[in-house]
Description:
The structure holds two protein chains of two kinds. By secondary structure, chain A is of the alpha/beta class. Chain A has nine helices and twelve strands. Chain A has a single domain (2-247), classed as P-loop containing nucleotide triphosphate hydrolases (Rossmann fold). In chain A, the strands form three sheets. A six-stranded mixed sheet of chain A has the order 6-9-10-3-11-12, sandwiched between helices. In chain A, strands 2-1-4-5 form a four-stranded antiparallel sheet. In chain A, strand 11 and strand 12 form a beta hairpin. Chain B has helices at residues 13-21, 27-40, 56-60, 116-122, 124-130, 141-148, 383-390, 396-412, 418-430, and strands at 64-65, 88-93, 96-97, 112-115, 153-158, 168-174, 181-183, 186-191, 196-205, 211-213, 216-221, 226-234, 239-249, 254-263, 266-275, 281-290, 295-304, 310-319, 324-333, 341-350, 356-365, 371-379. The radius of gyration of chain B is 21 Å and the shape is globular.
Amino acid sequence: MLQITNLHASVEGTEILRGIDLTIPSGEVHSIMGPNGSGKSTLARVLAGEETYEVTEGSITLDGEDLLDMDPDERACEGLFMAFQYPVEIPGVSTKYFLRAAVNAVRAHRELSELDAYEFLQLVKEKAQALALDTSLLDRSVNEGFSGGEKKRAEIFQMAMLDPKMCVLDETDSGLDIDALKVVSDGVNALRDGNRSFLVITHYQRLLNYIVPDVVHVLVNGRIARTGGKELAQLLEAEGYAGIEAESGVANGA
Amino acid sequence: MTTDTMNDQHLFESEFTRLVDLGGPLAGLRREAYDRFIELGWPTMRGEAYRYTDCRPIAEADLQLASPDVEVAMDELRSHLLEGVPTHRLVFVNGVYNDTLSDIGTVPGGVTVTRLASAIEDQEDLVTRHLGTTIDWKSDAFDALNTAFVEDGLFMHVPAGVHLEHPVHVLHVTRPGAKPIVSHPRALIVVEDGGRATCVETCCGLGDEPCLVNPVTEIVAGHDVHVDHYRIVREGAGTWHIGGLGLIQGNGTNVNSCCMALDGALIRNGMTATLDGTDGMANLRGLALVDGTRHVDNFLRVNHMKPDCNSREYFKHILSDKGSTSFTGRIYVEQDAQKTDAVQTNMNLLLSEQARVRTRPQLEIFADDVKCTHGATIGRLDEQAAFYLHARGIGREAARSLLTFAFANEVIEDIELLPLRRKMETLILERLPHGDLLQSMDSVD
Lengths: 254, 445
């Protein structure tokens, strides 16, 4: 599904990602953990295609297609979805309208017919039921005045509506209380269907109690320092990142 | 007899002489206004009121009073009509009523909707009592000029307690010719106590030759009245549109007026609202989409004369290319007008490097227990928001257009007359890249 090879990326001349290799097969949930400043969010943003990040070396492919060659909207149409760490508030744009435009853009790319207003609302109802989400947020402007939990729920709802094959969750747990965390995790788990893949980026192990990963990668200083099973997350929770940082030479400034 | 534009003393004199020779109840007012215009001369950028509006091309043009003897077919007006709602339609071509294109229909008992030229004869008392009372034509040259040449336009009278259900739609159609023309349409809207009315004015140009359109609309609203007034400006590319709106309102009266400035070489929207009763609300709004080398000037004055009134000014400008705008908002609060609540907002969205914005609030407050706030912003599109939309599958240009539309939409989203709001949405979207993709904005609801 997703194949990242020797990825180097920098922002304003400073290299943040220093050679990432990562393969996520179809249907698997991988987690990337790491201390602050290790490059976790940079990886998410490079995947989504934000222009402030310059890819200097390496490649990213999604089902064999070169992702780096695509604009962000094409990536979305090809089935990549990023749930933002900080979803942007957009006053004046109704969530419903925006979502319909997005869904139809993706459908057009997949050569599916455009949804009319009625079909769109049916889809909204169906997805909201499946995720046990309340649709009242849809009547408001995109993320405007949403609480932290509402914003993250809205992201998961968008994910369900756009039906991506590769989902990237960028610190979706940040700013969530335990109830909101559970709702969001249940939503993600409901979308696990054996084909769809997930990359769950998080600082804390807590989220991984709810979204149980197949593989855990530890990102340190722009490289994957260790890869293991879900027990690796528990080890990090108990021991912190210091051990792995020391092991990979970060602590002594290399 | 020829018009000598090099010498203000003779400006439009021959046409004026013809009009004054007609006599009638307005002869005195016309004479006074003409003399005043000659004294004032064309406004210059040295004065306060037209500091940012360059009237030199108008002063230098060899303007002639427009002739109504031009052909206009109904098909040319289709895109300007309101669909999905019955209207009382009056069409004026080059300032003069056109019976063939108009369709006033039937109005409820007691209501008058007619051309001003008739009302001057038939409703002499109402016309002479109210005409010229809402605007300061003694200090504004264009208002003086309009008043000097007042001849035709809309006259509307809603008696006490009557609600005029359907909107009155006035189309000011300008068909310019080889020589620069000028027209001075005037509208007088009088709504008595407890009355309710809606008026939509569309100023549309059928040709890009230089010309001056100088429409003045006056609204006289009694007590407990509700008036909604809209003006859409879609003039030809060579048109100088210098528009004026005056309104005066009594106790407990609510007036909304929204001006959408879209097309024309120069668009000036002068609005003067006088809150002359307690517990009133004047809600003035404006939206301008300014591209090319066009200039839009919103020039407002709100006079709070009595206590406990609210006024709102909400003006947004979207600028691209070398477009420029200016906004002047004067709020005057009389000593008596305690508990005034006035809010003024001017927001500008710059889509290019060369666009220019000037904005100035002017507050004159003589009461001591009032709330007057003003705010102006100048900004660009939010790139984070654009990226967010882009990352959800919406193309780069379409995402930017969606954000631009959202900015504009806040001016019009509360308009209750749905066919008009839809029309305005379409007019905005038509002017945005990939706007067609964003059509049917609200059909999801």
